[in-house]
């Protein structure tokens, strides 16, 4: 597959890389992770000023357009710095759901604010029993006079504490797993009946569990248009999967760069450890894994942008399966090459493996993707 960045994509990638290199080093990231919020308002404003939050939002609503292929270099840059800001949660997942499901009036209200970074939403879809099955939704929505109310628990809401509103999937009728009967709703973070249990994932990413007990909700688009809601959910999950594939590649690049620098400077018994054949072979295998993952991330982005393609349904799970395997193998090899220092909190390479562990599980881990392909 031939894929090259155009001039605009290249310019954004270079500007973003310079910004993150200058202002988001590993020690800065550690300080942000140790803060109460777990992310930085300053860094978020800088990303918004650069136009990152406007990606994927149509120009008619204040965005710059584009899709997963345009986000590919951006998400790779995020992965290289192990970024903690709510870009995936708000600018990819929630923004895609709004773009695909909202009414014209809702788009006019929400998309420009999302594009500018002034509004942050969170995607609340995952449930404990779903096991990465996209249409599995037990959360229920019901009419209460002129209002809609939602009952249920969303188990993994990325950057829940940073969001002012949630995009929530709920079922109007049918059984969990049915494609029919689904709708999307907006729930205010401060709505009575909506409560959050905040926590951090193993890579320090802020997340939360959202409990809805009769919380007042506003339908995103037409609640009766179940086909559109299902299409929006699938598009959102596909965009998220492609984004984390690119993020994993960026994380792999950092782990690989740290390893090559270490083995070419660390001496043992009077020789650079990189001169030993076993380590040279290990680094070569890591390089092969990285190149494989780069190619598969491109395939994932193309599949997410062309969901109607006959091959898209298999290309995305294949890509995430392959990247998950290669990323885990590369990061484990990176830690082994470093020895004990690779396991310390103060050194970045261990954090790369933590990041890969989280990203692999989002939208279905290696085993889930293998099972999905087997069913096909």
Structure commentary:
- The chain has 376 residues and is of the alpha+beta class.
- It has eleven helices and nine strands.
- The protein has three domains: 112 residues, Acyl-CoA dehydrogenase/oxidase, N-terminal domain (Butyryl-Coa Dehydrogenase, subunit A, domain 1, Orthogonal Bundle); 107 residues, Beta Barrel (Butyryl-CoA Dehydrogenase, subunit A, domain 2), CATH 2.40.110; 139 residues, Butyryl-CoA Dehydrogenase, subunit A, domain 3 (Up-down Bundle), CATH 1.20.140.10.
- Strand 2 and strand 3 form a beta hairpin.
- The longest helix has 38 residues.
- It is globular and about 80 Å long.
Task: Give, in order, the helices and strands.
Answer: HHHHHHEEEEEEEHEEHHHH
Question: What does the oligomeric state look like here?
Answer: single chain
The whole-number mean of residue pLDDT values reads 95
Report Rg: 21 Å
Enumerate how many helices there are, as a single number: 11
Number of domains: 3
Briefly note the CATH topology name of the largest domain.
Answer: Butyryl-CoA Dehydrogenase, subunit A, domain 3
Strand content: 15-25%
**Major β-sheet annotation:** 7 strands, mixed
Low-confidence stretches: none
SS elements, strand count: 9
Distance between the termini: 24 Å
CATH architecture of the largest domain: Up-down Bundle
Q: Which class of the largest domain in CATH terms? A: Mainly Alpha
Briefly say what this structure is:
The chain is built from 11 helices and 9 strands.
């Amino acid at each position: 597959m031939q894929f090259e960045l155009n001039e605009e994509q290249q310019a954004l990638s270079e500007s973003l890389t310079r910004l993150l290199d200058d202002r988001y080093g590993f020690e800065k990231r550690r300080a942000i992770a140790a803060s109460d919020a777990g992310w930085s308002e300053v860094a978020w404003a800088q990303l918004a000023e650069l136009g990152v939050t406007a990606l994927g939002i149509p120009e008619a609503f204040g965005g710059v357009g584009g899709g997963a292929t345009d986000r590919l270099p951006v998400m790779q840059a995020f992965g290289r710095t192990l970024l903690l800001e709510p870009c995936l949660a708000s600018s990819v997942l929630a923004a895609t759901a709004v773009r695909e499901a909202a009414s014209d009036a809702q788009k006019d209200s929400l998309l420009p604010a999302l594009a500018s970074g002034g509004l942050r939403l969170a995607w609340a879809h995952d449930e404990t029993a779903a096991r990465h099955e996209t249409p599995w939704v037990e959360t229920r929505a019901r009419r209460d006079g002129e209002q809609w109310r939602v009952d249920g628990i969303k188990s993994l809401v990325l950057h829940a504490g940073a969001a002012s509103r949630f995009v929530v999937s709920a079922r109007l009728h049918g059984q969990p797993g049915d494609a029919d009967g689904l709708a999307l709703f907006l729930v205010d973070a401060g709505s009575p009946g909506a409560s959050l249990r905040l926590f951090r994932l193993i890579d320090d990413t802020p997340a939360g569990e959202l409990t809805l007990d009769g919380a007042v909700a506003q339908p995103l688009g037409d609640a009766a248009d179940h086909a559109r809601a299902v299409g929006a959910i699938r598009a959102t999950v596909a965009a998220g999967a492609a984004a984390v594939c690119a993020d994993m590649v960026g994380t792999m690049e950092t782990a690989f760069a740290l390893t090559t620098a270490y083995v070419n400077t660390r001496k043992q018994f009077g020789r650079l450890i990189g001169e030993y054949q076993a380590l040279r072979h290990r680094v070569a295998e890591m390089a092969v894994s990285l190149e494989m993952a780069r190619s598969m991330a491109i395939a994932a982005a193309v599949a997410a942008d062309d969901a109607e393609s006959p091959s898209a349904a298999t290309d995305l799970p294949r890509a995430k399966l392959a990247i998950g395997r290669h990323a885990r193998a590369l990061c484990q090899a990176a830690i082994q090459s470093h020895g004990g220092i690779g396991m310390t909190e103060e050194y970045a390479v261990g954090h790369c493996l933590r990041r890969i562990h989280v990203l692999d599980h989002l939208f279905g881990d290696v085993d889930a993707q293998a099972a999905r392909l087997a069913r096909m």
